[in-house]
Write a structure and sequence with these properties.
Layout: E1 7-10, E2 18-19, H1 20-26, E3 35-37, H2 54-66, H3 74-84, E4 95-99, E5 102-106, H4 116-134, E6 138-143, H5 147-156, E7 162-169, H6 175-182, E8 189-195, H7 198-210, H8 212-216, E9 219-221, H9 228-232, H10 236-247, E10 255-259, H11 264-274, E11 281-286, H12 291-298, E12 300-302, H13 322-329, H14 334-347, E13 349-351, H15 354-363, E14 365-368, H16 371-385, H17 391-401, E15 410-414, H18 422-429, H19 437-440, E16 450-453, H20 456-467
Parallel strand pairs: 5-15, 6-7, 6-9, 7-8, 8-16, 10-11, 10-15, 11-14
Antiparallel strand pairs: 1-2, 1-3, 4-5, 12-13
The structure holds ligand LJ64HWYM.
Enzyme class: lyase
Catalytic activity: O-phospho-L-homoserine + H2O = L-threonine + phosphate
Family: Belongs to the threonine synthase family.
């Protein structure tokens, strides 16, 4: 069968064919792999012409992945309206010029003040269309180091046909992130605080998705970026950045510097470049949790326990979407991908073959940024550009300042509002960042969450009890 962009294949070789709705409602492929489009669609250069609005860009970028899997007009009718409502500035993802050839793409103006809102609002609207069409109900399980969970709760709370279970690492997300998840009064939302780190939460989610008893009881999926639909919703803002650069008279292809945890955001940028977006390169900027940087720089992908940092949403040591990068860079070699990730799951370490490593390095480089440098960068951004930035953005800006700008502009992604991380930002800039309305409105509402061990049977029991 010809490979096309709206049919989905698994990174581990499962031959069963899925369309966009199926990939969305399954979250992961049945063989434990991640869904990828059968081929990369091409985007017309017209899509990133100066002056394009975000909704129009999103429609052009997403439509080829959806094909006819959803009712005609589903993308336009609700999804795009929803995508751009509830965002504070008129431009959904404004690009700020910081200095010559250095830019910051602000992605935190949505309902939970983090970049996850952009894709999550779209995923919620599209899944509601898919469920209406099929008449089904859906249980979503999602792991979070803070931002994904908050965005998921905002997007899916009180939604018909959907039940949402969010697993966050107990006492390892910021107080604002936790309150965004736990103060929402919605009967269809369950918050589980897991005694462990994000990687434990993600492992539990993957285990739940693979559980036959849950799968046979109804639709069971995830809105982590392991779900292709969630990840694809992050492609449009790369296109929007190039369109905004064009409007500023900058036509050279940019280097994107992406603060990186689960590697979904960076992979969305790589996907945009595969679709034809002019990009000069990608830099994945990680904090001290540097499994990805060690894999790319040293050729050994090895697990370590995650350490706590100020850029808490990036405290990830087993970035799920590295699997998609390996699949793509290996020329879509599902056999090799399966072997490498099964070895990693079993032994916690795997050496990447040299040819694969070269191909990975052609797509993306990686930099690890220390806690001290992160703090210095928050101070520099404030003192030099008058910008108060969150620790994740600071990690990206620090890496961006190390990129050679003689060949073209460098765009650092600014992923969250600094007020979500006041404890780490205030001591550096000398004041509490002014919270946006969406954070002020959290008030002092009561919180609701259950604490569980990082154990598959505890997670299964909690999910079963909630479902009952
Ligand atoms: N940084 C994330 C971790 C999960 O990432 P996702 O993109 O796979 O949902 C978070 O804030 O939860």
């Amino acid at each position: 069968m010809a490979q096309i962009s709206d049919r989905y294949v698994s990174t581990r070789g499962d031959a069963s064919d899925a369309d966009f709705a199926e990939a969305l409602l399954r979250g992961m492929a049945p063989d434990g792999g991640l869904y990828m489009p059968g081929a990369w669609p091409s985007l017309s250069p017209d899509a990133w012409a100066a002056g394009r609005g975000y909704a129009e860009i999103a429609s052009r970028a997403m439509a080829p992945f959806i094909g006819d899997a959803l009712p005609a007009g589903a993308l336009d009718r609700r999804a795009l309206a929803r995508l751009t409502s509830g965002f504070e500035p008129d431009e959904v993802t404004p690009l700020r010029k910081l200095e010559d050839s250095l830019y910051m793409l602000e992605l935190f103006h949505g309902p939970t003040a983090a970049f996850k809102d952009l894709a999550m609002q779209l995923a919620a609207a599209l899944s509601s269309e898919a469920l209406k069409a099929s008449g089904e109900r859906l249980t979503l399980v999602t792991a979070t180091s803070g931002d994904t969970g908050a965005a998921a709760v905002a997007a899916f709370a009180n939604t018909d046909r959907v039940r949402l279970i969010v697993l966050h690492p107990h006492e390892r997300v910021s107080p604002v992130q936790r309150r965004q998840m736990t103060t929402v009064e919605a009967p269809n939302v369950l918050n589980l605080a897991v005694r462990g780190d994000f990687d434990d939460c993600q492992r539990l989610v993957k285990g739940l998705l693979a559980d036959e008893s849950l799968r046979s009881a109804g639709r069971f999926s995830s809105v982590n970026s392991i779900n292709w639909a969630r990840l694809a919703g992050q492609i449009p803002y790369y296109v929007s950045a190039v369109s905004q650069l064009a409007a500023m008279g900058e036509t050279r292809a940019p280097v994107f510097v992406v603060p990186t945890g689960n590697f979904g955001d960076a992979f969305a940028g790589i996907a945009a470049s595969k679709m034809g977006l002019p990009v000069a390169g990608f830099v994945a900027a990680v904090n001290r949790n540097d499994a990805l940087a060690r894999a790319i720089n040293d050729g050994v992908y090895a697990r370590k326990a995650a350490v706590e940092t100020a850029s808490v949403s990036m405290d990830v040591q087993a970035p799920s979407n590295f699997e998609r990068l390996v699949f793509e860079a290996s020329g879509r070699d599902a056999e090799l991908t399966r072997t490498l990730f099964e070895t990693f799951a079993r032994e916690g370490t795997v050496t990447l073959p040299p040819a694969l490593l070269d191909a990975i390095r052609a797509e993306v480089s990686a930099v690890s940024v220390s806690e001290e440098t992160t703090r210095d960068q928050i101070a520099h951004a404030h003192a030099t550009w008058g910008q108060v930035v969150c620790p994740h953005t600071a990690v990206a800006l620090s890496a961006a300042r190390g990129v050679d700008r003689s060949r073209g502009p460098v765009v650092a992604l600014s992923t969250a509002h600094p007020a979500k991380f006041g404890k780490d930002v205030a001591p550096v800039v000398g004041f509490d960042p002014e919270p946006p309305r969406v954070i002020r409105e959290l008030g002092d509402r009561a919180e609701r969450f259950e604490v569980i061990d990082a154990d598959a049977s505890a997670a299964l029991a909690a999910v079963r009890a909630f479902a009952a």
